[in-house]
């Protein structure tokens, strides 16, 4: 080659920052006996009926392409599911695409709606992929920071402040990764007013919809007036414990779907066929298992939130997902220092909050999608760690009052 | 008996793990330790919680293997008491580990445990078939236990945590 290899790497790839999570993965992966609260996926294996359906479809030879948008039978099930669970109506023929994970659905959405330099407001702390996906699509990610004072809920004022002439869309993800925060209908309606007023679109990542614990989940597309402005993204990963399947879904007004489908047919063609058959079964017959996983997460959330508060880490009660996002400010450490020292001293892996955006600094993300004995042990170790930092367990000021 | 949602939650947590401490259960169910203790006491008194059995895989312990048979029994029900009288005569034998009244081709289903095949044969021929209302018996010996009370023996592949240690 005539040049240094770096010459051949595109500027786009060079400009992308590696995810902050990667660093922690490398650090923790090399250690033994680590209890990980750093995993962003369910601790359940996919329910057997779903796996069995995918196996059967392979046995029957379902190994050819499907329609670009996915098997019509699956899109019909998705349409029925979205209607049944969230009260939104989408035509399976031209308003739904089965994607390779919700991540791809996000990618398609941004590519389909952004022109060079268009701004997308991202409520932070946020999932690590959002900003890079916006950039890759030629857009400009604009952070809307939330804070612990109101449980990381985004307010209409915060959104309005970030809006400029170039703002094209708002990205919402509630229940949220990493804060676990969810928004109720009234809160979403206030956001809808802003969207209407400034004539914006909303990309709503509702991947944690099934994991909502205290209030009924409301889809943003179900808010009056928002259906026409919303690209709804959901998937099988979290609620159905199917992360490794990489199956997502998107639903939107048909003009948007048409645009996204054009991109999808060239980049991907279709989602894997045998997995789509598994997904049909997931939507048809997994109601009880989904409910039972949800109950299990809720119990663990209750346990973890109260225990963290008891051992001296302030923590709001998240309404969904399987993350808690406690403040570590009392230790005087930065998020990265805390996570690194905790890992080295006590072999508990958590994710430093700053990897989810600046407003995550001073917090850590702990996933409670781990067995109760592991959680109990992890919290014991964290308590010991905090004691070395001069933070003592305060049982009297128990956390019950905060719930 | 009607339980409130808190009592029901406590009961379901215990069903999954009866060794969970009252403190842990209280945190999981968003209630106080005292409520947990009182609820458990009440549920035990009412015989809603019957016992806390331990599931043991005896095949892994040398010299402790046992033989298990399931017996289908046809019975002539007795006037006035139906099947209950015959059932009682049967379930009082300590070697009977479970007994159900069934719909279908036969009436009672017995699970019996013994040390040897002879022991079970003796029970069927001497004790069971000599009971007045027993019309016929069919004995099936159990060859292997794959799953019992929701627990897969030898773990099964699903027990292993295959996730990477940190993921987004």
Automatic annotation (TrEMBL), chain A:
Enzyme Commission number: 2.6.1.-
Cofactor names: pyridoxal 5'-phosphate
SUPFAM superfamilies: PLP-dependent transferases (SSF53383)
Gene3D superfamilies in UniProt: Aspartate Aminotransferase, domain 1 (3.90.1150.10), Type I PLP-dependent aspartate aminotransferase-like (Major domain) (3.40.640.10)
BP term (GO), one: amino acid metabolic process
Keywords for this protein: Aminotransferase, Pyridoxal phosphate, Transferase
CDD domains: AAT_like
InterPro entries recorded: Aminotransferase_I/II_large (IPR004839), AspAT/PAT-like (IPR050596), NHTrfase_class1_PyrdxlP-BS (IPR004838), PyrdxlP-dep_Trfase (IPR015424), PyrdxlP-dep_Trfase_major (IPR015421), PyrdxlP-dep_Trfase_small (IPR015422)
Record GO terms (molecular function): pyridoxal phosphate binding; transaminase activity
Superkingdom of origin organism: Bacteria
Start and end residues of each Aminotransferase class I/classII large domain: 32-381
Entry coiled-coil feature ranges: none
Family (UniProt): Belongs to the class-I pyridoxal-phosphate-dependent aminotransferase family.
Entry protein name: Aminotransferase
UniProtKB/TrEMBL annotation, chain B:
Database matches in InterPro entries: Dimeric_a/b-barrel, HTH-Siroheme_Decarb, Tscrpt_reg_AsnC-like, Tscrpt_reg_AsnC/Lrp_C, WH-like_DNA-bd_sf, WH_DNA-bd_sf
Top-level taxonomic group: Bacteria
Name of protein: Transcriptional regulator, AsnC family
Residues of the Transcription regulator AsnC/Lrp ligand binding domain: 72-144
Alphabetical list of Pfam families matching this protein: AsnC_trans_reg
PANTHER family reported in the protein's UniProt record: HTH-TYPE TRANSCRIPTIONAL REGULATOR PTR2, TRANSCRIPTIONAL REGULATOR, ASNC FAMILY
